[in-house]
């Protein structure tokens, strides 16, 4: 059996002010899976994600990424963990700060010591994966929001991550941008964990979903099944748009 991309065991965490955000979370995500992390506001989704690369730590439990345990005390391990866990934040402008798209995509791997033809190759591959190769020499601020989000994905892909974590990937995208990003994400050969309130997007992209509520995983299973469970959705403040059939994508 191959090593899972992500293994979380007994993860519990309270913020310094005493707010308990996670109460013993267990999750395993296999290599190449696409999984949606759903849950109401304040459920603990961001807190969970920030544990994947050691930004938050100090509570109970363990997180392993591709078999490597997140250990914030070990700087070398942490550097490797941060390469393995590629987080694409909601606002692409938090991730793009160089004069050109290519320099933004090169920034991460160059920091790891990748140089010359290999660096060039990584940049081109990552930009091609998100359909942005033609924009390589453009300043990111001249691109549309949807294009900037795709470049933000490329900056993470250039690190050759074990797991791509996307925070609200569909937010602020127009319908075409939303569909284009879905096609890109579906075509990537990478483990995907997608945090979202957009249930149709979860249904479209992720065969499996987790529902986190009150710091606990309350459901883990096929997305179409979870989203068809009206009582489950209601209990955790999740709502499908009127008329949306959660089984539609499962049938395709
Ligand atoms: N810095 C902080 N200090 C204290 N409590 C916090 C802090 N950040 C988050 N919390 C609390 O931790 C709990 C989980 O919050 P978290 O942001 O992880 O939820 P979330 O599921 O990501 O919510 P949303 O969908 O609104 O982004 C909430 O009760 C929140 O108020």
UniProtKB/TrEMBL annotation:
Topology in membrane: Peripheral membrane protein
GO molecular function, one term: ATP hydrolysis activity
A cellular-component GO term for this protein: ATP-binding cassette (ABC) transporter complex
Role description: Probably part of an ABC transporter complex. Responsible for energy coupling to the transport system.
Transmembrane segments: none
Keywords: ATP-binding, Cell membrane, Membrane, Nucleotide-binding, Translocase, Transport
Locations listed in the record: Cell membrane
Family to which this protein belongs: Belongs to the ABC transporter superfamily.
Record Pfam families: ABC_tran (PF00005)
Listed InterPro entries: AAA+_ATPase, ABC_transporter-like_ATP-bd, ABC_transporter-like_CS, ABC_transpr_CbiO/EcfA_su, Co_trans_ATP-bd, ECF_ABC_transporter_ATP-bd, P-loop_NTPase
SUPFAM superfamilies for the chain: P-loop containing nucleoside triphosphate hydrolases
Gene Ontology biological process terms, A to Z: cobalt ion transport
Domain called ABC transporter: residue spans: 6-239
Coiled-coil region list: none
Name under which the protein is recorded: ABC transporter ATP-binding protein
Record carries keyword Ion transport: no
